[in-house]
Amino acid sequence: MTDPAYFPPPHSARIGMSDVEQLKSQTRSLRSVDYRHGGGACRDAVVVRIYWAQQLLAAEASDHVRARLLTAVADLHNLAGWTSFDCGQVGAAYHHFDRALDFARHDEDLTTNIVYRRGRVHLHHGAPGDALAYFQRGAQTPLASSIMHANEAWAYARQARSDEALRALGRAQDAFAAADVRHAPDWARFHDETDLLSLTGIVHTELGDTATAIPALLTAVERLGPAMARSRTFCLIALATCHFLDGDLDEGKAVGSRAMSAAEDLRSERVWDRMRPMLRAAAAHGVSLR
Question: CA 174, 175, 180, 181 torsion: positive or negative?
């Protein structure tokens, strides 16, 4: 794989689809680094690429190439926002999401994805009501609808609105069943059967339904490999929390220790933030994971 930090300058004052495809390829590579190692491992490289993207925007191009370029630049800012969020840089995250929305005005599916990610920032920082306003925006494709409904379920679960959470989760599952996952755009490709299973486990963890959460999380942990190391760590955190809630202290400590070890290998502030409920659940039983 080409070094994601490497990029050549535009060849001339006029660009073509090869320049756009190169930008998309680099964004794809950097996104894979984010999944595997956390936003801190690639955020700077993403931001540096934005300067090159600005050179492309200043170049001449056909209308077709220009439209594709705007989508590519929007997704680059989308990734910059997400990696900033993962690093704990909320202000920078919002800045890049706003820029992404500016560039994605012509692309409804990408716009929906950016809106979803803004909602996740609110959800992470303790504002599920604000997050719901983003997740309930609506979507044009089944895959995007599944993402929105699954996260809507999570926000409802955070508010202890069990019935609404389960209905939203059902809508997410129905939408996913109708989705064309094989042709998913880069920004939505993460949402596969395993991701939906992970979210199912997390929603039921939030609701205190450990009997449903644990099997879902166990299966997700088994399926998630090194390429999705951060997602796997999130599942381990939720799984350990479930065991502590059940009073299964030995299993909780074992899984919690695995989560802590996995987090050490990631450059993600968000992972450590998500660790807090697990640590509180452990401490409530006199268990130390430090």
Answer: negative
Residue type, 214: I
How confident is residue 13, by pLDDT bands cut at 50, 70 and 90?
A: confident
Report whether 20 contacts 72 (CB < 8 A): yes
Query: How far is residue 257 from each of residues 42, 131, 239, 251, 275, measured CA to CA in Å?
Result: 26, 31, 11, 10, 11
* Sequence spans of domains, the chain: 16-106
Main-chain phi, psi angles of 60, to 5 degrees: -75, 150
List the structure tokens of 137.
């925006």
Maximum Cα interatomic distance, the chain, rounded to a whole number of Å: 65
- Asked whether the beta carbons of 256 and 235 are under 8 A apart, the reply is no
pLDDT in tens, 45-54: 999 999 989 9
Using one digit for the tens of pLDDT, what is the confidence trace for 109-154?
A: 999 999 999 999 999 999 999 999 999 999 999 999 999 999 999 9
Please compute Rg for the chain using Cα positions.
20
CB 66 within 8 A of CB 107: no
Compute the distance between CA of residue 254 and CA of residue 238 in angstroms, rounded to an integer: 13
Query: Angle formed by the axes of helices 249-264 and 269-284, to 10°?
Result: 160
The Cα–Cα gap between 138 and 224 comes to 28
Task: Name beta bridge partners: 60.
Answer: 14
Which backbone phi and psi does 184 adopt, to 5 degrees? -65, 140
Residue 288 has, within 13 A of its CA and on its CB side, a CA count of 1
| 289 confidence band (pLDDT: 50, 70, 90) | confident
Q: Which two tokens stand for residue 73?
A: 């630049």
